## 1
Amino acid sequence: MWLSWVVSCQAGEEAVEWFDFIAKQAARLLAVRDADLFVLAVHEAVVNAVKEAKRAGGGSRTISLSFFVTADDVTVMVEDEGDGISLETIERLASMTLADVLLAESGRGLLLIREAMDAMAWMERPDGRRVLVMAMKRKAGWEGGDG
Amino acid sequence: MEQHRFLFELERIAKPAYDCVVLTGRLAYHTQLAAEQKLAAAAAAVEHPLVIVDTSGLQFLDSTGLALLVRFFKRVVSAGRAMAIVVRENAMIEKILLIAKLDRLLPIAADEQQVLALAPLSSPGPIEQAVLLEAWQQRRAEGRDGSG
C-alpha cells in the first residue's frame, strides 16, 4: 500500500505546536521505527521553517508538510516560502556532527534531524529552492490499526 | 492550542551535599524565554560545588532546549562547579541527550546515587567537571553503574 497527504499551515508560532500534534499522530498510526525521534525531527524542521519565515518578515507565509507512506517507510517533505537553504550551508553541515557543536548554543537542529531519521536530503525545486526531505523506516510487521 | 502545553517549570532544591535542579514540562522552542530566565536564576543561586539537574520530568526536549541546557552547564562550570544530569526512567529524554552527545560533557546518570557514588565526590571542596566526567566514564567502562 501507499498513502500521501499534504498539510499546510500559516508560518506563525502556533505552526510548531500544530505540526507537533500531527507528527505524534502520524508516528503512532504509521508505526515508525522510533516515534520520539520522528516527532523531534519534524519539530526541528518546522521550527527552522518558522524561524526562516520570521527572518523574512512574513507571518503570512505558509509551511507545508507532505507525507509519503509506503509499507517500508514514511517520508516527510518540509516546504516553506522562504529562500531555502544555501548550498554552502548544506556543504558545511555535511562535514559536521553533533560532537562538533557540543558547547554551541545554536546550530543543532538539522544535525539532530540527520541523527534522528534514517535518511535526510535536500531536493532542489524547479525554481532553484531546496526543500528538506527526510525518511524513517516503519516497524517490521506493521499491518495497520492504531498500534 | 491549550496554554498548559507550553509550560516549563524549574525548582531548585538545596540538598545537604549538592544542588538539585528539577525540570518539568517542555524545554523547547516555545518555552525558551521563560526557561532561559529560570535557568539563569537557578545558576546564580547555586550553593554547592555539585549541581544535579533532574530531567526526568521533561515531556519534550528539542535543539533549543539542548542549547539552554548547554548554556546552563557553561554557567555552572565557569563558576567553578560541576554538573551532572539524571534521567531516571525517562527514556525519551535520555535518548535525545545521548544523540546530542552531551554525555561527552557531563555524566548522564539514572539517579543521584550513581553520581554521588563517584570517587571525586567523596572529598569535600570544589569539583572539577573534567575530573567528575572522567570518573563517570571510567565507571561506565567498568560496567559498575548497573545501567548497561
## 2
Amino acid sequence: MALSAFFLMLFLLQHFAINMMSVVSPEMFNETSHFMGTNPMIQYLMQPILIFAVVFHFVMGFILEARNKAARNVKYAKYNGAANASWFSRNMLVSGLVVLAFLGLHFYDFWLPEVTTKFVEGDMTGLNAAGEFRYFEELQHKFVDGWRVAIYCVAFVLLAMHLMHGFNSAFQSTGIDGKMAAGRKKFGTAFAIIVPLGFVFIALFHFLTQTGH
Amino acid sequence: MNLNLKIWRQKNSNDKGGMHSYQISDVSPDMSFLEMLDVLNQQLNDKGEEPIAFDHDCREGICGMCSLQINGEPHGPDRGVTTCQLHMRKFNDGDTIYIEPFRAKAFPVIKDLVVDRSAFDRIQHAGGFVSVNTSGNTQDANAIPIPKADADKAFDAATCIGCGACVASCKNASAMLYVSAKVSQFALLPQGKVEAKDRVLNMVKAMDEEGFGNCTNTGACEVECPKGISLENIARMNREYLSASLKK
C-alpha cells in the first residue's frame, strides 16, 4: 500500500504541475501534453506502471479492509473512534471510494478519448482540424459544465482528506522516521491541502473564465 | 451519584451474550471504577444474582490486568491511566455508562467482561526475550556502554504492561503497538541486537497467526495507551521487519 502510495503521490505532483501550466501558459501546456502523450517511455513504460499502481492500491485497500473487519468479529455496542483518531484516518475506504468513482469519470473524460484518438484512429499528431494542438481546447471543453466542475471539486476535497492521513501513514508503514519526522508531517499536511486544492483552483479557473466571470 | 450502567453479560465463551441494564445509586466520586463495580457486585450478591466477572489484580496501574471498554474507549475517558486508576469523578450524576469487554477475534470473551489475552503471551514466546548464557560467567550488563537516548527509548518501550488497550482501541483490532514495544525494548540495546532479525520476524508472524488486524496508522492506540507507548515504536518495528526480511 505504502509503496504504491509513494508512486501515486509523485504522479499526482507531476500531474498538478502540468495542469497548472494550463493556467499560466496554454502553449506550454499543449507542448508538455504532447510530449507526455507521445513519448514512448511514458506511454509504454510509465503509463502501464501507473495503471498497475492504481489498481494495486485499490485492490490492496479492499483486502486490508476485509481482513481488518474480520479481526473484530463482535462489534462494540458503543465505540468512540472520534475520541482518539481523526475522521480521515478512520475512513480511508470512504474517501478512497469517492476518489475511485472520480477516476472513472476522469478516465471517461480524458483517458478514453485520448487512447481512442491515438491507438484506435491512429492519430498521433495531437492536432485539431485547424492544425493546432488540441490539448488545451479539450481541457477547457470539459470545464464548461458546472455539474462536472462541482464533481471534480468534491472529489479533490475527498482526495485532500485521503492524503491528510495517507501521506504520513505511508512513511510510518515503511518505517521512515527519525529527526526529520516533525518537518515531514508538516510537509505532508501542506501537500495534502495544496495539491488537491490546486486542482480545484484549475477546474474553477477554466470554468469561470469560460462562463464570463 | 446515580448511574445507569449498560454492561455486557456472557455466561461463557460459547454463549452469545448481550448488554444488560443496571442502576446504581450513591456512588462516591472518589471511588475508582473497579470499586464502583465491586459495589454493584455486592448488590447483585445480596439479591442472589450472579456477580459480574471482570479482570483486576494490582489496582495500582502497573500489572495490566484490568481492561474494560468504557463508553467506547479502553480504560475509559481519562488519559494515561488504566481502569483501576479511573475515578468516578470523571462521570456526571445521571450518566449512562457502557461497559464492554475488549473486543478482538484474538481476545475471545471467557465470561462477562473477562477476555483471554494469552495471544500476547504466545507472541512474546515467539521472540520477546534475550537468550542469556547462565553458566556463571555472564557479562555484567552495566559493563556495556549504552547511549542514554537509546536506554531511555528502550525503557519507555519496556513500560508496556500488555493490557491490550491498543488492540481494543484500534478500529482494526491491531496489536502493532504492543508487538512494536516488545521488539523495540530489545532492538535498541546491544544485548538485543544479536537476535533482532529472528525476533521481529517471529513475533510479527505470531501476531498475524493470532488473527489481529493490520495497522493503518490511525494513532488511536497511542492515544489510549495507559503507558504512553509511542507510535515511533511501530515505525521502528516496520524498519526492523523490512531489514530482516531483505536479509533473510
## 3
Amino acid sequence: MLELKAINAGYGNVQVLRNLSLTAKPGQVTCVMGRNGAGKTTMLRTIMGQVQAQAGSITLNNTPLHGLPAHEVPRHGIGYVPQGRRLFGELTVAQNIEIGLMTRHKTAKTRDYVLSLFPRLRERLAQRSSTLSGGEQQMLAIARALCLEPAVLLLDEPTEGLQPSMITLIRETLLTLKATGVATILVEQRVDAVLSMANQIAFVSNGTVAETLENTNLTPATPQFQTYVGI
Amino acid sequence: MDFGPFLLLALMEGTVMAAVLALTAVGLSLVFGVMRVVNVAHGEFFMLGAVIAWFVTHYMPGPPAVGFAAALVICPLLVGGVAALSDTLILKRLNYDPEATIVATIGLSYIFQQAALTFYGPDARPVEAPFDLRIQLPWFGYSGYKIAVVVAAIVILLAVWLLMTRTRAGLIMRATQLDRTTARAFGINVDRVYAAVFALGAGLAAVAAVLIVPIQQAHYLMGHDPLLLSFIVVIIGGLGSLRGTLLAALVIGLSDGVISVFFSPTLAKILATLLVAMVLVFRPQGLFGVKQ
C-alpha cells in the first residue's frame, strides 16, 4: 500500500502541495481529479522523487520513499507513465522496453507478459518509438512502466488526445492490472473513464485532497465533478 | 617528387591527423551529447594523456614497446579518473548548468595546465615510438607507426560505436542523453552515468594523445590545437552526433593534411575556421545534428 501523509512540496519558493494525504491500496484504482494547476502532476512527481517533499511522508508497505534519490524510487516497484508519454523517441520500441526491464532486473518472461497485453507493440519492436502513432506511443509508455512489475502504477492522463478505441484498450488493460493486485493512481480528466475504473476518486484542489469519494452510485452529474473539475 | 606521390603523402598525413582528431573529438561530442556540457578542459585532458605517457615510458623499465603499452592502459585510466573526480567535485555541484560548466571547465583547464607546468616543466619532451618500422613505397618511405596509429584509432572508434549501439551501458547513456528525468524514473543513476561519460570522453582524448606523442612531443601547452580542432569538428558534424563527428574529423583531417603540405598549416586552420563560420550561419545544428 502506498501512503502519502501530509505532503508539502513545490518548485523553489513556490509551494504546490499543501498537507496532501492519499492512499493507494493493492488491487484498487485511485483516480485523482482536479483543475489545471491543482497539483496532480506535482503529486506524482513527488512520489517519484523528481520533486522533493519538504514535509510529510511517502511510504510503500511501510518502507519510506521520501528523501530517496529519484532513481531509487522505481526500484521499489513504482511504475510511472508520465504526462505526454516521454518515451525515449530515438530508441526503438524494444529498447524502450529494455530500459523498463533493466530497472528491476526483470527477464524475458516479464517482457513476454507485457507484450501479450499490447500485441501491436510486438509487431513494431524494431521501429523507432517516435514514429509510432499517439495510441501506440501510449501503449509503449504503459508497457515500459509495466516492465518493472510494479506494485504501484502511476498514470498521468493516459487517455489524453487518444481515439475512443485506444481509450477502451487502455481501460481494459488497467482493469486487468487491477485484477492482478496492482495499486493504481490515475490522474484523469475524463469522467466516463474515471467512473468505469475507479474504486476511489480523490479531488485535488489548491494542492491538497479536498474530498475523497468511494465510486459507488456516482454519476457524471455528481456535484463534486462540477465543483472540483468544472465539468 | 611528382604531384601524385606528393598528394598521396599529404593524404596519408591527413589520415593520421584525422584518426587522432576523430578520437579526441568523439570524446568531446560524447560529453556534450549526453551531458550537455561544453568541456573547455578537453584539450587539457589530451595534454595530461601525453604528459603522463612521457612519465610512464620514461620510468618504465624494459624496451619502449612495454612502456608504450603500459601508457596506453594507464593514461586513459588516470585521466578518466581525474575527469570523474572533476565531475563529482565540480560539475555535479553546478547541477550541470550549461553556462556555469563552461566557466568551470575553463578554470579546470588552467588548473591542469599549471599542474603540468609545475610537475612536468616547460620543455617539450619526446616519447619513443614502440617500434621502428619504415614501409617503403615506390615513391617514398613512410612510418609504419603512423599507419599503426590509424589502425588503432579505427579499432578504438569501432569499440566506442559498439559500446554505444550494442551494449546495455550504451543504451543507458543514450536514454540519459534523450531525457534524464525519465531516465531517473526508470532507475538510471544519472549522476553515475555523467561521471562515466565524462571519464570516457577524457579517456578517449588521453588515448589519442598517447598515440600521437611519439610523433609530436609532449608539452604542457599542447592541448590548445586539439581543443580548437575538436570544436571545429564537433560543430561541423553536429553537436552530439557521433556519425557527424567522425565524418567531419575525416574532412578536417584530410584537408588539413593536404593544405598543410601544399600550402601552409596556417591556411589550413583559417579554412577550417571559415568552414565552421559557414556551418554556423547556414546550418547551425551541424551537418548531422538535430535542429532544436
## 4
Amino acid sequence: MTEAILDIRDLRIALPKGSDRPYALDGLSLSVASGEIVCLVGESGSGKSLTAGAVMRLLPEPSVRVSGGSIQFEGDDLLSFSETAMRDIRGNRISMIFQEPMTALNPQKTVGWQIDEVLRLHMKASRAERRAHALEMLDRVHIPDPPSAYNAYPHQISGGQRQRVMIAMALSLSPRLIIADEPTTALDVTTQLQILKLIRELQREDGAGVLFITHDFGVVAEIADKVVVLRQGEVVEQGPADEVLNNPQHPYTRTLIASVPDLKPPVPKPVSDPPVVLSARGLKKTFGARGGLLSGKRRAVTAVKDLSFKLHRGETLGVVGESGSGKTTVSRIVTRLLDADQGAVELDGKDLLACSPRELRAMRKHIQMVFQDPMASLNPRKRVVDLIAQGPIVHGVPPERAREKARKLLEMVELSPAAADRFPHEFSGGQRQRIGIARALALEPRVIVADEPVSALDVSVQAQVLQLLADLRDRLDLSLLFVTHDLRVAAQLCDRIMVMQKGEVVEAGPTADVFANPQHPYTRNLLSSIPGKDWTPPVRGIDAA
Amino acid sequence: MTVLDTDIRPEGPSRFVAFWQRYRRNRAAMLGLGLFVIVVIMALTAGLVAPGDPLARAADPLTPPFTNSSVPLGTDQLGRDILAGIFYGARISLLIGVIATLISIAIGVLIGALAGYFGGWVDDVLMRITEAFQTIPNFVLLLTLVAIMGSKIEWITLAIGIVSWTAPARMVRAEFMSLRGREFVDAARNLGVSNGAIIFREILPNAMPPVVVYASVIMALAILLESALAFLGLGDPNYASWGNMIGQGRAVLRTAWYCAAIPGIAIVLTVLSFSLLGEGLNDALNPRQKK
C-alpha cells in the first residue's frame, strides 16, 4: 500500500445562514495515494466542487468556510498553513485543471506566457530553460507543433488543445496532487476520450495522485481507480471503482447508475408505414458575419449544406454530432428561428420556409420546440401558468380557457398543480424542463423539435425527463426531432438517427443498425469514444419514474 | 425512486419582501430613502406650513434666520419667506425631476429597445442619432432649447427630458442586445408572439432593473439642470424654485449669504438622497454583484 498524498478526514464545510442546508459537506473522508485516480461523483449541488476549493484553500471565505475536520497533504495539515505558504503550494505541489479552458486561460496572453508564469513563480531557472521546459510540456500533452502553440493566443487553438494547455500548465512542475474539476465536461466526446487518456498517461508517468471530480459515470468507468459518491454533501458510498460500478451497495448509487442511459438502442418498431409529417429538402445555411459600414465582411462559415430528411408520424429522429456539426442550426431552421439560404421544410404539404410572416405565425402551432437550457428558455418574470398558456392565447384561445388547460398540462408533465402560480426560479432544472415541455405541448403540435433537452440536467433527472418525453410521444402520437451530442441519450429514445459532421449527414438509418454496424469512419470514431463504453451498468433498465 | 424531483420547494418570501430585506441592509441607502421621504413630505405639506403665495412679501427684507419666529429661516431681499420658498421649491424640483425623468426614460427605452432588438440598419441609424445628441454638451443643448422654446416650466421640463435620454437609450440597447439572444425570446417567437409583444412584454421587464437604478441618477441631474438654468436667470420666474432662489440670492451673497446657502443645502441633500437611493436600488436589484 502506497502512502496517501491527500488525506481528508471528517471535512465539514459550513454554508452561510439561509442556505438550503447548514453544511455543504458533512463528514467527508477520503484519501488519494500516489499513482491513484480517485473520482468524486455526485449530482449538481452535492458539494463536489467545494471539496476542491477546500483543498486548494480557495473557498469564498468567510461566508463558506471549513468548520471541521482536517486535510492532510503529504503529512502536513493544509488548513493550518498561512496564505503565503499556500501560494507556494498551489500550482507547485497541488495543481488544478478547470472545467472551462476558455475562461480559465487569460485571453490577453499567449499560451507560452501563461505556462511561463507558473514556472517563473515556482522555479528558479533562466528564461531559456523555462522556455525549453514549457515546450517539453506542450510536447508531452501531444500538442502538434509546440513552438507555434507557445506563441498562440487561447482563441487561436481549439477547445481540446486549450484543455491540453491547461494540463501542461498543471503538470509542468510535477505536482504531487492534481485536482481535476470536470475537466472534460465542456468537450466533445472524441476530444474527451483523448483528454482522459492523456491525464491517465501523464499521471502514470509522474506517479501523482489525482482527485477527479465528475458527474458522469461513463467517465468514471473510463478512468477511476477509486470512487467516492456524494449526495447532498454526504458520502454515501466509496470503494474501488470495480466494486462501486458493478456492485453498488447504496440505493442512491444504484439509482444513479441505473439512470446512466443504456447503449442498447430500442427494438425497432414493427414495420408499418406511417405518413410523413415533416420533410426537409436541400437545406443550406451559411453564416456570413455581417460587416458594418466600415468593416469588411468576414469569412463565411457553412453550417449546413444540402440536408434532407423525412420525419414520420410517431417517430423520433435523432440528429447526432459534435459541436460545430450544424445540428443546432438544423433545429433552428426547421422551426424557422433562423432563415435558411435554400431548401424547403414541408409540414403537411406546406412549405414553412416560404410562408409570409402572418402564415408563419399560424403555422408555428404545429411545430414546437423544447430548448436546451431550461433556465434561459423560461422568461424569469412570468408565472408558470402564463408561460404555458401564452402560446394558446397568442393563437386566439380565450385566456381563461388557456390557463385552465395549462393547469391540466402541468399534471401531464407530472408537476403538482401548485406549480402554476410560481416563478421559474423556484424550480429545479428538471422541473423547469418539464415546464418547457408543457409549454411546447400547449399548442397541440404535430412535431416537437428538442434541442439537447436533457444535456443541462443531472443524470437521474435526465432519465426521468427522457422517460416523460417518450411517454408523451407515444400517448399523443407526436413526431420528435431530437438533437443531441450524447449517443447514450440518442440510443434511448431515437428510432432513427442521422449523424452530422461539418454540416453534412455522413450516415443515417435505424438506430439499432447504426450502433451495431456503423458504416462511416466518423460514426465509428464517435461510437468508440463514448466514455465507459466497455462497462455495462449492472442494474438494468430504469424504474418507471 | 429516491431522487424523484417532482416535489416543489417551499415558497420563499415574496419578491417585494426579499427586495426590501436586501435594501434595508444598506445604511447609506436607508439614509437616502429617509431624505427622499422628507423632501416628499415637504412638497406635500407646503400649503399647510406656509399658506398663501410663497412669492409674496412676508416680513422685512433680508431678515437673518432664527431672528423672527414668523419667518424662521429669514427672508430674501424682497422680503419673501425663505422657508416657504424651500417647501414650495421642493414641489417644483420633484415635479421637474419626475416628469423630466419619465420623458427621458420613455424616449431612451423606445430608441434603445428598437435599436437593440432589431439591430442592423435600424440600430445604425438610431445610434448615429443618439451619438449626435451625445456630442453636444447637454447643458449647452438645454440652453439652446430653452432659448428657442422660452422659459415656461413645461418647456423647461420637456427640454431637460430631451437632453438626458441618450444614456438610458444606450443602456437599454445593451440590455436588449444581450437579452434578445436568450432562449426565452426564441421560445416566444416559436409560439408565434409578435415583435411588439416580444419587445415590450418579454424583454423589457427583464431589462428594467438597471434602468430603474439609472432613473434616480437622471432625477438628480434634472434637479441640478433646472437649478443651473434658474441660477443663470433662465428659470420660470412665476414659481419659487430652489434654483431661482440661489440665482436671486447671488446678488446679496456677501451681505446675506443665507439667501443662497439655504436653498443650496436643500439641493445638495435632495441630489444626495437620489444618489444614495439609486445605489441602494442597484445593490438590492442585483444582489449577486457584491459578495
